[in-house]
Amino acid sequence: MKSKILIVDDEQDIRELIKFYLKKEGFEVFEASNGFEALEILESEYIDLGIIDVMMPKMDGFELVEKMKDIKDVPVIMLTAKSQSKDKLRGFDVGVDDYVTKPFDASELIARVKAVLKRYSINASNIIKINETEFDGDKYEIRYSGGTIHLPLKQFELVFELVKSPNHIFSREQLIEKIWGMDYDGFDRTVDVHIKRVRENLKDVPGFKIVTVRGLGYKAEVEGK
């Protein structure tokens, strides 16, 4: 089945250019000229990835990503004319997966689309059990005696990576490469922010905890091991 890509940009020429290359690669493409149109499409279509411009009228790209994540945790590549670190950090904090700076090379954009889609494809057979807690890579959910927790995808991928190797210490650099990819040029703080949110969301889940190993990184500490 073709992956469905949503392009959101107020410049029609940009949308047409991206659409041309995406269709050439076999993707199904949807277009929106602003955030409101994008949200309408997201309500009616199962979108696999969004390519979103930062600077748009009515609703900027950051606000749109936040609203999209409330509907579905869609992976996002953000198009921007800005390269300032603060803009990228804000984007990663609201859930952006990758950045492409305008003017962009079409082949690079397509490569990043494929890389992000690949990272979002967790093997459906991957179910990890720690004590009485199950981490389900198909449904992106964590099941335990107190109920079921659905984490945002990046948080789930992060904790999933840690619990795959209980008590193994991962450096921030290793986690960035595994979860965000080798092309990520953000900051270590992104890992810290996500770890903090994971801890908050999983504070009632028994049997393990995410531990900071000073100067080295993080590990999943499992009770009884």
Descriptive notes:
It is a single chain. With 225 residues, the protein is an alpha/beta fold. The chain folds into two domains: 4-120, Rossmann fold; 127-222, Arc Repressor Mutant, subunit A. Helices cover 41% and strands 23% of the residues. It has eight helices and eleven strands. The chain has helices at residues 12-24, 35-44, 61-71, 85-94, 106-120, 153-164, 172-180, 189-201; strands at 4-8, 28-32, 49-53, 76-80, 98-101, 127-130, 133-136, 141-144, 147-150, 208-213, 217-222. It has a five-stranded parallel sheet with strand order 2-1-3-4-5, sandwiched between helices. A four-stranded antiparallel sheet has the order 6-7-8-9, with helices on one face. Helix 2 packs parallel to helix 3 (61-71), helix 6 packs across helix 7 and helix 6 packs across helix 8.
CATH superfamily of the largest domain: Response regulator
Please state roughly what percent of the residues sit in beta strands, choosing from under 5%, 5-15%, 15-25%, 25-35%, 35-45% or over 45%. 15-25%
Query: Would you identify the regions where 5 or more consecutive residues have pLDDT less than 50?
Result: none
Overall mean pLDDT: 85
First-to-last CA distance: 42 Å
What order do the helices and strands follow? EHEHEHEHEHEEEEHHHEE
Tell me the strand order in the biggest sheet. 2-1-3-4-5
Q: What is the architecture of the largest domain at the second tier of CATH?
A: 3-Layer(aba) Sandwich
Radius of gyration: 18 Å
Helix content: 40-55%
Structural class, by secondary structure, is: alpha/beta
* CATH top-level class of the largest domain: Alpha Beta
Looking at the structure, the CATH topology of the largest domain is Rossmann fold
- What global shape is seen? elongated
Main sheet record: 5 strands, parallel
Tally of helical segments: 8
Question: In total, how many domains does the architecture comprise?
Answer: 2
